[in-house]
Specification:
With 418 residues, this protein is an alpha+beta fold. The protein has helices at residues 2-20, 22-60, 94-101, 154-159, 168-175, 204-208, 222-228, 248-262, 278-321, 323-331, 336-372, 381-407, 411-416; strands spanning 65-68, 106-121, 124-134, 144-149, 163-167, 184-187, 190-200, 217-221, 237-242, 274-276. A 6-stranded mixed β-barrel has the order 2-3-8-5-7-6. The two termini are 34 Å apart.
């Protein structure tokens, strides 16, 4: 009961100090609030991006892995062969794609590569539109709703037929409100028939790569892109989905052995291609955003330091202004520990108020991002607890010097203070 009274008394003193020293207290609270806001905002955004990123990967399939020319890790590539050995790797070929398709442990292989072209219909034209050249199984790795229209068929893909699907944004820019199905458009001077309109499901990974719903894009059969649009084959990437009867590890071993044999690699030669699992992609993501978050923590620490210096300043002034009061309290039996405790509570109250303000602003920002973007930004409980604890520790750590000074005052000298 006595401890609770001491806490309440310390909180009351802190509120009185804020009222009496609005500018100093405001600067102290602002410093802590900024520090907490930085941590909370970055934590909410990174958590949301990670959740969206992971959802994108899950839609591809838990056991699906990627065959690609270059690695996906973070490296200090400067353009030289020494720092960038992957740049000399030969591209993944259509022949290798077909070979992997025939492996017994493989259920399906989605081939994809990117390209860019100018799209036009009558008097409407959209330049530099990015397109994805896919094999017919593309919905397995790019979850989208097709309506109206349909996906292209395997026959159309094998024959290299000039058919195309456009997304909602490109459809609106070329056709307005009219029905695009069956209409002829030109793609970089070649005639194509629109067979469908697709709507990609929102996700951070697609938005990051410029494949979000608000960006004009198209999907073209991979064979068609290679034959008619001279698509750059060096960017061919394969998404390999193991059969239900095979494990990911078994199929990866199959693909690895087949690729090495086809490329004539000797036992001591390094792989000149990469097999990338989803765990590896998430690891790269965590490395990248972990570094960004570390920078945010450093900035937050600076802001908390500023707030801590403000705590020292305002609390030292408070000790000076209340010297006589402290003498009276000691004369009436208050111990040094009691005085010290009250001043620490007062300091922690100041920083906790700053933390609450920072949390509130951070939560508001997370809501705005969640409501207006594809990033499901959210405020993790761990971040909230960490912010409150860190602010309280800041108050206690920086309030210790004034608290000790107050508790060590000689009661007789304090009573004489004017």
């Amino acid at each position: 009961m006595n401890s609770l009274l001491l806490v309440l008394e310390g909180v009351a003193m802190a509120l009185e100090a804020i009222r009496g020293n609005k500018v100093r207290a405001g600067l102290t609270i602002a410093g802590v609030a900024i520090g907490v806001f930085v941590v909370v905002a970055m934590g909410a955004v990174v958590t949301g991006i990670r959740a969206s990123f992971q959802k994108d990967l899950e839609e591809i399939g838990a056991t699906t892995f990627i065959v690609q020319r270059r690695g996906s890790g973070i490296s200090a590539c400067d353009g030289t062969d020494e720092k960038c050995p992957d740049r000399r790797n030969p591209p993944i070929t259509v022949g290798e794609w077909e070979m992997i398709r025939r492996l017994p442990g493989v259920q399906e292989v989605v081939g994809t590569q990117g390209g860019q072209g100018n799209f036009a219909y009558r008097n409407s034209r959209v330049d530099n539109v990015g397109y994805d050249a896919y094999s017919v199984e593309w919905p397995a790795v790019n979850a989208s709703d097709i309506a109206p229209g349909r996906n292209f068929t395997r026959t159309e893909e094998n024959a290299g037929q000039p058919v195309v699907l456009v997304n909602d944004t490109l459809k609106a820019q070329l056709f307005g409100d009219s029905d695009p199905i069956g209409k002829q458009i030109t793609v970089s001077g070649r005639q194509f028939t629109v067979v469908g309109v697709y709507t990609p499901r929102a996700g951070f990974l697609r938005s990051l790569e410029g494949r979000g719903p608000d960006t004009p894009r198209a999907i073209i059969p991979l064979t068609t892109a290679i034959r008619q649009l001279d698509a750059f084959r060096g960017s061919l990437t394969l998404f390999v989905r193991p059969a239900p009867t095979a494990t990911q590890e078994e199929v990866m071993d199959e693909v690895l052995a087949s690729m090495r044999a086809r490329r004539g690699l000797k036992p001591g030669d390094r792989n000149d291609f990469y097999l990338v699992e989803q765990d590896r992609i998430m690891e790269t993501f965590d490395q990248l955003f972990g570094a960004i978050f570390a920078v945010g923590l450093a900035l937050s620490a600076v802001a908390l330091l500023v707030g801590g210096v403000g705590v020292v300043a305002i609390m030292m002034i408070s000790v000076t202004e209340r010297t006589r009061e402290i003498g009276v309290r000691k004369a009436l039996g208050a111990t040094a520990g009691t005085i010290r405790w009250q001043f620490l509570v007062e300091a922690a109250t100041l920083t906790t108020i700053g933390a609450i303000i920072g949390l509130s602003i951070g939560a508001l920002l997370a809501w705005v991002i969640r409501s207006n973007t594809s990033i499901p930004a959210e405020l993790p409980t761990s971040i909230v607890i960490t912010a409150l604890v860190a602010s309280a520790i800041t108050g206690v750590a920086f309030g210790m010097l004034p608290a000790v000074k107050a508790s060590n005052l000689d009661p007789v000298e304090a009573l004489r203070y004017e």
